[in-house]
Design brief:
Radius of gyration of chain A: 15 Å
Largest sheet of chain A: none
Number of domains of chain A: 1
Number of strands of chain A: 0
Largest sheet of chain B: 2 strands, antiparallel
CATH topology of the largest domain in chain B: Sodium/glucose cotransporter
CATH superfamily of the largest domain in chain B: Sodium/glucose cotransporter
Helix content of chain B: 55-70%
CATH architecture of the largest domain in chain B: Up-down Bundle
Number of helices of chain B: 27
Distance between the termini of chain A: 10 Å
Oligomer: heterodimer
Strand order of the largest sheet of chain B: 1-2
Shape of chain A: rod-shaped
Strand content of chain B: under 5%
Number of domains of chain B: 3
Order of helices and strands of chain B: HHHHHHHHEEHHHHHHHHHHHHHHHHHHH
Structural class of chain A: mainly alpha
Number of helices of chain A: 2
Strand content of chain A: under 5%
Radius of gyration of chain B: 26 Å
Shape of chain B: globular
Number of strands of chain B: 2
Order of helices and strands of chain A: HH
Chain lengths: 66, 664
């Protein structure tokens, strides 16, 4: 209905992904859980998800209104 | 549970989410042109969105937290709530009932009832549903405000007119205000969009926690091994005194088939399959307007029918995210060296000060009596060995207040199951991931509120206000009424939140009432949709009698001998001080499932009999599109074979059966 839901989802997760990657990359030790840099790993996963959503939204816009 | 320390990144995620949901509301505002746009989304939403909203509306934070709690208490058998208690009902809704809901152009479930029967059934259903949604919304708000005020307490307090307002009130008002803004601007569509956002937050927020927990435990085989250990000796981690078969936590069906006494749930096969699997689950998924409303917002019939089917896929897989954490927690608790125990119930500050005073006055020579006093004053079950150690240590050298508090709290043996989710988040999440997981919880509480408020709006505006109070006004009028009802709905929810915060049992009471009302309801729908002979009088009286049966059954049975909130309160009236042995059920779940079975049975039989005894008020022509036998079958040749609801439904059912077999 008017607003393609992939925009807010894509933006939200790209933002969170970026934040987690920044924390994971800079904070090293305190971003660890069980000796895994989970912030960095998961941040990248979320970035990929967010960006694919945004790409989907852009593709939808190019197709024009249905 | 202690207050959690949040870093800048966690606060940023929290605030970003809030900004996004409000932003969605404002972005949708310009598309809200009519009451239909506001209250029913103008029927324009694609199937994947309505499908995810459908499952999200059901997935409140209480479910996320509650399923982990049940996973800890009952193991993989909790999955029955999904694999037996949801999937079949969702498929039935998609294949058989959606054509009537969507095709009749009813704007709500009660409106369908009005078309099929008459105003009496519609009125009954609207009022009971409206009351239930407001309470459900209030309970969500109460749980959210309490969680936030516990984790992030505010030191400041405000005194107005003699009343002290603290953290709880502050969070209650702020969260209600956020929900108010985005629902007021964007209506049902706002609620649906934020529900989809919430879905992704939950999946992406909790998946890493589950993954980390899994690695911590050491894999599926280790998990099974540890859970077998627990089943043979639950008392080792304070899970009760009974012992069960060794597969009680790892097998879904064998403990149930073994009978009510052999599994921690206390439920046998019949109440599980008929009471939960048929009556309660079909009663909820097929008639509850909160979820059905999302499917009705779809852009066409095909999308509407695919909505519950799309929702069934994540629903089948959710046990991995919500139930598994509970099982992982139990395994961790019994593994030495992991430094983890299931969260104990918190001793309230007043009880704690009494217990501390008792310890300081106690004599080590008289430890047993001292223990009894301390236990009564603390109000919880305590580990005797630990208490004796505290008394001995304290008399050798007085312990500090903090020390005493901590050790007394540690001695509690009652488990606070609802705290399992948070305890795992605390254990595994570093800053960043912590913000994501907490925001996911916050998101699901808030959308629990929003979903209930939007359902309440539609029911009030169309089924009560337009139907009985002010018919034949302009659409603009109803649009404004719909918006104003949002405000009224939120205010009512706030009152319900305060009400439920005073009663620790409020949640249980509301669940009970839901059960009373939902149990017979499916019988009414079943007969209405599939048997043209069902009459309005039959439906109305059958529903009332079914609901009364629920109440009477609850009044006659209980889980303990003492009549009270658990049931059995009719016996003192009949002259017995306690509930007779034959009426005591092994667990409250067993009681609920049997209650549902009886209520359904009575409603079904009476509705059928009374319908046969009364004359029909609607002709076959009027019932076309409302009853199965009188509606022409939908033409589906243009849809690809695999996308047809009946085919998709069968595939999903087979997947569900396979899951049941894997975890047999």
């Amino acid at each position: 209905m008017g607003l393609d839901i992939r925009w807010p989802i894509g933006l939200m997760f790209t933002l969170i992904g970026l934040l987690l990657v920044i924390v994971g990359a800079t904070n090293g030790a305190s971003a660890q859980a069980l000796n895994i840099n989970i912030d960095l790993i998961w941040g990248v996963v979320l970035l990929i998800f967010g960006v694919s959503m945004l790409l989907g939204a852009i593709a939808g816009k190019k197709q024009g209104p249905k | 549970m202690q207050p959690i320390h949040l870093a800048w990144v966690d606060y940023t995620i929290l605030i970003a989410y809030t900004a996004f949901v409000i932003g969605i509301g404002f972005a949708l505002r310009k598309y809200m042109k009519s009451s239909s746009d506001f209250l029913t989304s103008g029927r324009s939403i694609p199937a994947w969105v309505t499908g995810l909203a459908f499952i999200s509306a059901n997935l409140g934070a209480l479910e996320v937290v509650g399923m982990a709690a049940s996973g800890a208490q009952y193991g993989v058998a909790t999955a029955h709530f999904y694999w037996v208690g949801a999937i079949p009902a969702m498929i039935f809704l998609a294949v058989f009932m959606m054509p009537f809901y969507y095709g009749s152009k009813a704007r709500s479930v009660p409106e369908y009832l009005n078309m099929r029967f008459d105003g009496r059934v519609r009125c009954l259903n609207s009022i009971s549903f409206a009351v239930m949604t407001v309470f459900a919304s209030g309970i969500s708000m109460d749980a959210l405000a309490r969680m936030l005020s516990f984790l992030l307490p505010w030191k400041n307090q405000l005194t107005i007119g003699g009343h002290i307002f603290g953290s709880y009130d502050f969070y209650l008002v702020i969260c209600s205000a956020i929900v108010l803004v985005y629902v007021l601007k964007g209506g049902l569509t706002s609620a649906i969009y934020t529900e989809v956002l919430q879905f992704f937050m939950i999946v992406l927020g909790f998946a890493p926690v589950v993954w980390l927990g899994f690695k911590d435990v050491g894999g599926w085989n280790t998990l099974k091994e540890k859970l077998t250990q627990v089943a043979q000796n639950p008392a080792a981690i304070y899970l009760g005194d009974k012992s069960y078969n060794s597969d009680a936590w790892t097998s879904a069906w064998k403990p149930v088939l073994a009978g009510a006494d052999h599994n921690p749930m206390g439920v046998g096969v019949f109440p599980m399959v008929f009471g939960l699997g048929f009556v309660l689950s079909f009663g909820y998924w097929c008639t509850n307007f909160l979820v059905v409303q999302r499917a009705m917002a779809a852009k066409n019939m095909g999308a509407a029918r695919r909505t519950p089917l799309i929702a069934a896929v994540p629903k089948m897989l959710f046990p991995a995210i919500v139930i598994l954490p509970g099982m992982l927690a139990v395994a961790l608790a019994i593994m030495p060296g992991k430094d983890y125990r299931l969260p104990p119930v918190t001793i309230s500050p007043t009880a704690m000060s009494r217990a501390v005073a008792d310890v300081q006055a106690a004599n080590p020579g008289n430890a047993a009596t001292a223990y009894a006093t301390i236990k009564t004053d603390a109000g919880q079950n305590l580990d005797q060995a630990k208490i004796t150690a505290i008394i001995t240590d304290n008399s050798a050298k007085p312990l500090s207040a903090d020390d005493l508090n901590a050790r007394l709290q540690d001695a509690v043996t009652d488990t606070y199951y609802n705290g399992v989710t948070l305890s795992l988040i605390e254990r595994y999440c570093p800053a960043g991931l912590l913000g994501l997981a907490l925001t996911a919880l916050l998101a699901s509480f808030m959308s629990g509120m929003a979903g209930n408020v939007t359902a309440f709006n539609t029911i009030w505006t169309y089924d009560l206000y337009q139907a009985y109070l002010a018919p034949n006004k302009s659409d603009r009028h109803y649009f404004v009424v719909g918006q104003s009802t949002t405000i009224v709905g939120i205010i009512l929810s706030i009152f319900c939140a305060y009400f439920s915060s005073h009663y620790s049992n409020a949640m249980n009471v509301i669940q009970l009432v839901f059960g009373f009302v939902n149990a017979p309801l499916f019988a009414t729908f079943l007969l209405g949709m599939f048997w043209a002979r069902t009459t309005g009088t039959g439906a109305f009286l059958g529903l009332i009698c079914g609901t009364c049966t629920s109440a009477v059954y609850h009044a006659l049975t209980s889980t303990i001998a003492q009549p009270g909130i658990q049931g059995g309160y009719l016996w003192p009236v009949l002259g017995h001080a306690t509930v007779p042995e034959s009426c005591i059920m092994p667990s409250s779940m067993a009681q609920n499932f049997w209650l549902a079975s009886f209520a359904f049975g009575v409603c079904f039989i009476l509705t059928a009999l009374i319908s046969l005894a009364t004359s029909r008020t609607k002709s076959d022509e009027e019932l076309k599109g409302l009853v199965y036998s009188l509606t022409p079958k939908l033409k589906e040749e243009e849809t690809h074979f695999l996308l047809r609801p009946a085919v998709l439904g069968t595939i999903l059912l087979i997947c569900c059966v396979i899951l049941n077999i894997i975890f047999w």
